[in-house]
């Protein structure tokens, strides 16, 4: 966060940047337009971020728009269902599509997107430590692999195969991650 | 496939298109350069594909470079491991990165990429019907969900989190898909 800026003001700038990116795409986005919508002077923005990519990267990792609370429902199944539900909403938001479309060939944005997902996963780790404490997960289980499965399946299904994720799909996904697809598990 | 063109000649054109895309990126790719490398006249290419995007889309869905054989190892675990191994190689190839980077904002390429993955999954369906016949999968299990999990986890892990997928990761991934991550499965 830039020094001397209130967190609320910074959030207004991030919101303006993501909204304008969604409306006009990367090529149509300018620092001037972000300044105008956020009600700050463009020289102020240039003092904090030296380029459009730097500002966008900061918005991707820091915007409250892309934030969601860590799940704590009392069971691993409930928590994973909550994570999957929120993630499916995030992945289908126009702002997310606009960010992902802008990533290829822009290292700062690619790095910010990676940092965003890594950060999300780190914040979700209590889901797994609580599950180990309740005996729902083995102590040596790999939380990152669970996230690869859950987030990856949603990503592939929603963004690559053009599918949709209703409650039934999300429940089947979480149950498959928990108990596997093999007929021999019973 | 264009009428009047031998399949070998068409493959040479697709190879030239994907190689040049990998070397120069989308903006640096021209129909002229593809024609020159494939040893055909550029008017021939324009007769078959009206634009660079149309030719690239045809290459994505039709090139033998992006093809791999359907697994048939005798067990579901072996087959899934083979699919995961080949998919992880495909996803980390420079040509794949070049295609995926060119997709955003280009509907023909997005459609071709979706068709490529959907087509791959359709060709892998014998893996699941054989597993049902061997009693390794329930008859009502959802092959598409298995593919979402396997392909999605690899996609997320390799392309979004910048991870690598060695034999140990691939084995853990397949075992998690088969038997789940829950400690209560035992």
UniProtKB/TrEMBL annotation, chains A, B:
Kindly state which keywords UniProt assigns to this record, in alphabetical order: DNA-binding, Transcription, Transcription regulation
The record ties this protein, via PANTHER family, to: HTH-TYPE TRANSCRIPTIONAL REGULATOR RUTR (PTHR30055), TETR-FAMILY TRANSCRIPTIONAL REGULATOR (PTHR30055:SF148)
Task: One Pfam family, please name it.
Answer: TetR_N
Q: Which residues form the signal peptide?
A: none
Which intervals hold domain HTH tetR-type?
A: 7-67
Q: Which residues bind DNA?
A: 30-49
The answer to keyword Hydrolase applying to this record is no
Q: What is this protein called?
A: HTH tetR-type domain-containing protein
Q: What is the lineage of its organism?
A: Bacteria, Bacillati, Actinomycetota, Actinomycetes, Pseudonocardiales
Spell out the molecular function terms from Gene Ontology.
DNA-binding transcription factor activity; transcription cis-regulatory region binding
Species this chain originates from? Amycolatopsis methanolica 239
């Amino acid at each position: 966060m830039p020094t001397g800026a209130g967190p609320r003001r910074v959030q207004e700038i991030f919101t303006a940047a993501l909204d304008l990116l969604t409306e006009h795409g990367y090529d149509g986005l300018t620092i001037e337009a972000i300044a105008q919508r956020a009600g700050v002077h463009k020289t102020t923005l240039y003092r904090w971020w030296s380029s459009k990519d730097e500002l966008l990267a900061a918005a991707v990792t820091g915007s409250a728009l892309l934030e969601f609370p860590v799940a704590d429902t009392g069971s691993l199944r409930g928590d994973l269902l909550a994570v999957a539900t929120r993630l499916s909403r995030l992945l289908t938001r126009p702002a997310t599509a606009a960010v992902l479309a802008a990533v290829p060939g822009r290292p700062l944005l690619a790095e910010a997107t990676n940092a965003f997902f890594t950060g999300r996963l780190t914040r979700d780790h209590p889901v797994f430590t609580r599950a180990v404490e309740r005996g729902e997960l083995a102590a040596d289980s790999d939380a990152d692999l669970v996230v690869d499965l859950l987030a990856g399946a949603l990503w592939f299904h929603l963004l690559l195969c053009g599918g949709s994720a209703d409650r039934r799909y999300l429940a089947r996904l979480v149950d498959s991650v928990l108990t596997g697809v093999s007929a021999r598990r019973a």
